[in-house]
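Progress narrative, Year 2. Work on N(6)-L-threonylcarbamoyladenine synthase from Tilletiaria anomala advanced from sequence curation to structure prediction during this period.
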Amino acid sequence: MAWPAGVHSAAISQARPRLLSNVVLRQDHSATGGIHPYHAAIWHGSNVPQAVGQALQIAAGPSHGWGASSILMPTKYMDGQSLSPKDIDAIAVTRGPGMMASLSNGMVAAKTLASVWNKPLIYVHHMAAHALTPFFTEESPPAFPFLTLLVSGGHTMLVLAESVQKYQILATTSDDSIGDAFDKAARDMGIPWGGNTAHSNPGAALEAFAAAADITTVQELKEHLRKQKNIALPSAMRGQLAFSYSGLKATVTRAVQALPSDVKTRRALAHLFQEAAVAQISEKLRLVLQRTLDLPIKDVVCSGGVASNSFLRQHLRDTLDAAGKEGTRLLFPPLEFCTDNAAMIAHTGLLFYEQRTHDLSIQPVAKWNLEDL
Ligand code: KG4
Ligand code: ZN
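Result:
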């Protein structure tokens, strides 16, 4: 699910913006095993208009509930006033990076509203929106410069955020993302998600599946894997400021084929996969902490879909503490704002309000470096 359109109002007011609605319509990709561009195009084509319609309806209603696209309004609108198009100052929309089919649908929807209502547009970078989410979810937002760990289906990056618009990528993946590895591992292990299950994505399903692993079986399997060359879970790019998840993905596939398929073994393997995936993140964070000792970093932000993972959350805290950074804040958005949502796009639009434009010729970009904002 790429996120599409955030509709927001940013009257130039110092009032803390409030979210009037946040509609997320999810596509169930469990049948196809992953997001297929053709299906993403079809789905976005029908769901983006519905989500925008619902978001506007909710915001216009008497009770400004949480629920869908996002509408951020200054506090004055929370006093029972109804939202109408005249109250909207600008429309924020994701320009990239991401799947062209998804981005185009969101941009057409936003441009159509902008054209009909004669409103300016704010074109938002998806990963900047993940990094800046705590400005909206935290009472006391992070102070620049801060470190941000962006872990999603498309990215695995450690970034130094120097200002709202200035980012320095300290480490990125040389191949696949951590989210992609979770998705592939869940698929290989046949862990159900979507449909009637409690989990809307494969990563969350794998986390829950691994949480019930039996500790003795985990230890035995760990020993076993260590002795088997071709299925020993790798710790990639040690000592380097770079991530790699393709080796882990391939090894898990081989391990699933080589090991017994009973649930106990599968849960233990899911646990060990998660441990290996997270260990890599912790190692890179340690390296970055050592190399940024001269910077006044008080906050570390971890955001993106994989930041929902509680095993990762605990390990990052432990990593900071072990590095003598007990006083450094570690900020995670609430779960509904870790995975893609329009609220973060609307809010980032607010932070980039000065860049609003009536230019409808701006095109989506599938690849867009965060350093080139
Ligand atoms: O940020 P996001 O919603 O979409 C992209 O921008 O890619 O991230 C989606 C990714 C998927 O790979 C999904 O499986 C993963 O985040 N994810 C998780 C968890 N929740 C979502 N991975 C591990 N544990 C979770 N609890
Ligand atoms: Zn995302």
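The pocket of KG4 (ligand 1) is lined by residues 152-154, 179, 182-183, 201-204, 207, 304-306, 308-309, 339-340 (CB under 6 Å). The CA atoms of residues 1 and 26 lie 6 Å apart.
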